[in-house]
Amino acid sequence: MEPQSDAESVFEDFDEVTDDISGIRWEDAPALMLFTFLVVVVGMQFFTRYVLNDSLAWTEEAARYSLIILTFLGSAICVRQGTHLMIGVIYRHLPRAAVKPLAMFSELLTAGFFGGLAWLGMSMIERTSRQMMITVPFPKSYAYTAITVGCTLAALYGLINLWRIASRTPEEIAERAIGGV
């Protein structure tokens, strides 16, 4: 067997992409339904604009708000699964004494960030409660409510991950690269 190059050993740290959907839980249903809605709306938008040459006005706004909401609901899912933005490979190459504090700080930062966004979202819900969307007959506060729910869930999952990291050894953290709820 040939010795591996440094580049090949780095790629061993990345998970293989599979079609396994066992990680999907009931909390993911709203995001999956919204994603399906987004695909349908963008398909309608494309069809009416480029095939019929007469686009539906509401599809652009509906797609925009759906994508924004999906981003924050998806963020909560990523925090729950431990797949949010981080460089997990770093944990495998750090001195063991630094792994746990860095992982805890990272998760605390994530929970704090989303908690702060949720706090700001509460004021945006109140500020936009009387403002209507332009082409869709809903108040803008509906979108901010969904965004705030996503941020609140992400903050809660971050706190749960923080608690779980506190109970793990540095070796487990480095092996799992934080993991998830």
Based on CA inertia axes, which overall geometry fits?
A: elongated
**Helix count, per DSSP?**
7
Indicate the proportion of strand residues.
under 5%
The beta-strand count equals: 0
**CA gyration radius, whole angstroms:** 21 Å
Sequence stretches where pLDDT stays below 50 over 5 or more residues: none
Question: Number of domains in the coordinates?
Answer: 1
Oligomer: single chain
- Helix and strand element order: HHHHHHH
Major sheet: size, sense and barrel closure?
none
The helicity comes to 55-70%
Amino-to-carboxy terminus distance: 38 Å
Mean pLDDT: 84
Structural category is mainly alpha
Can you offer a commentary on this structure?
This protein is 69% helix and 0% strand. The protein is built from seven helices and no strands. The protein is elongated. The chain has one domain. The chain has 181 residues and is mainly alpha-helical.
Keywords:
single chain; 181 residues; mainly alpha; 7 helices; 69% helix; elongated
